[in-house]
Amino acid sequence: MGEAAGDLSPRGVVADLRNELDRLVAGLDQEPAIKAFKDGSADKALYVDFLVQTRHYVALTAPCLEAAGRRLKELGEHPELAELFFQKADEEAGHDILVDDDLRALGLDPEATLAAHPPGEWITAYNSWITAATNGRHPAAFLGSAYILEGLAVERAGKVAKALVATSSIPKIADAVTFLDLHAEADIGHVDDLERILAGLEDATECDAIVMTAAATRGAYLGMLDEVARTRSTAH
């Protein structure tokens, strides 16, 4: 799902994560699905596929945050981080419903749409990775995924939402970008908070697990976009 991290030092973990985020943003801008969202050529089916795959991984965010917090407590490690995970689990709870709202705005029944479109290979792989990581020896690995996804929201979610509204001919698209819009605004402070937390971690093995999870998240997200675009191209 992504390359293993290279030689890491605890002080370098933030720089390594920034590099992973930069690589994801650069790759994202080359993805056919994202280009279609920006230039107005995306049809409703492509956007729905994107929303559905997004919904399938976002639904795991709060449960994984809670699991990571519990696991840290079991290990007797990072009590403040454990409490932060519990707090963020509360903040993230219900964010999957934002995707449901976008699907409804497009005239679809969320439950039926999700049932008809199960997780693809990349989101299935990501969900397995992040579940194992948060229940493993280094549950702080979830910070790598959080950094990548929240950083991506800050860098591109708002821009993609604006482009969709400005260029797309998809009916009622202006009412169907709730998830992208709200995450673009909400995650700005989250990235700064994560960097402060990450800078205080001192275990090199733990830092390695965090960066590996970030790389896995980057690979899965780009793979998901490839999969969505490929599914649409073969459907026509």
Characteristics:
single chain, 236 residues, mainly alpha, Heme Oxygenase, Chain A, 76% helix
Write a brief caption for the model:
This protein is an all-alpha fold and 236 residues long.
Strand segment tally: 0
Q: In angstroms, what is the radius of gyration? A: 17 Å
Report on the biggest sheet. none
Fraction in beta strands: under 5%
The backbone outline, from C-alpha atoms, is globular
User: Helix and strand succession?
Assistant: HHHHHHHHHHHH
CATH class reads Mainly Alpha
Number of domains: 1
User: CATH fold name, please?
Assistant: Heme Oxygenase, Chain A
Please name the fourth-level CATH homologous superfamily.
Heme oxygenase-like
Report helical residue fraction.
over 70%
Taking the alpha carbons of the first and last residues, their distance comes to 28 Å
Overall pLDDT confidence: 90
The number of helices is: 12
* Regions with little confidence, pLDDT below 50 for 5+ residues: 1-10
Structural class: mainly alpha
CATH structural architecture: Up-down Bundle
Protein name: Iron-containing redox enzyme family protein
